[in-house]
Predict the 3D structure of the following.
Amino acid sequence: MSKASILIIDDELQIRRLLTITLHGDFVVSEAATAKEGMLMAASHPPDLVLLDLGLPDENGHDVLRHLREWYNHPIIILSAQTSEEDIVKALDAGASDYLVKPFRTGELLARIRTALRKSTTADHGPVMTFGNLVIDFAARKVTKENVTVKLTATEYSLLALMARNEGRVLTHQHLLREVWGPSYVQESQYLRVFVAQLRKKIEADPNRPSLILTESGVGYRFSGT
């Protein structure tokens, strides 16, 4: 089985060296120090995943992300020293698959990469997805937990289905509200909190310590099926 390919776009030499050493055993790694070089490399040999820094010397990383998303459908994980919620939300809403703040733990990065790649390779999943003892049948719009049907409202089901189909990806509050409730509800974050709490009570083993619907503080939620 061939190794997945990863393109690093980051102007910091030390970061590129660290990432290359960390990833080299499990992945085929290439690197670029500028936005221009990175986009040319991505276009000529599209990788399975891109690690993108937002603070590039020749172009704003948000613009690079936007340009890549015009044609590139594989995961893009942002690695950035920018920690503001505004930057994180902006990147995720523009199509980033995930966002890690520098400095990051290499173990966490590897876990995020594997999750993103697994989601990418199973994007064309069938009508049924299984997460431990939780089963979602999209064709029947039916959810079971330990072989017992979970009774969900239409809105609860829509929210769960959206999260599950984007397993491992951080979905912002605004994105979830827009997709489930509509554009006029993007500021109504209380709707989301209430429905997430209801879902957790119905599908989590311990709603107070959720393992499926994880909170990304100030940003949104991540569905973790592992």
Q: What stands out?
A: The chain has two domains: 5-121, 128-223. The domain at 128-223 is CATH 1.10.10.10 (Arc Repressor Mutant, subunit A). The mean pLDDT is 89. The longest helix spans residues 106-121.
